[in-house]
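Hey, quick one: can you model this chain's 3D structure?
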Amino acid sequence: MPSTPPAPGPRPPAGVDPAVMAARYGRPRQGRRGVIVAAVVAALVVVAALVWQTTTAMNRTTLHTEDLGFTVQDATHVTVRFNLVTDPGATVRCTLTALNSKFTEVGFKEVVIGPVKAARTAHEADVTTTEPAVTGSVKSCEVLQP
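Sure thing. Here's the predicted structure for all 146 residues.
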């Protein structure tokens, strides 16, 4: 009678039927190939995400604003002064706001600037208000795609 070699992996304790152990705890794993494949796939996904993020960041136009100040002209107007820092040639839309003493927005204006010729440019715009304002500033800016 030919003998079969023992199966790889941990052996059940002496006197315990391997079929009972398999039924109770499942069959022992035969290899780690699936774990290795999953790890390689996960590593490739991480590398692809980093490459995509880097490429996107390199193609993004820089944009930054610096509030320089404001002047309340009268009960219905405030002038907002600011610097715009962006890539030369970019066109930007900025939202300017005026607030009252309770920090409620009482004026709003969108201005389109550009294409700018220098990286840093100075701007000012009048914002019409519905009641006297105590401050004016740049709320947000976004680069307009050509």
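One thing worth noting: The chain has two helices and six strands.
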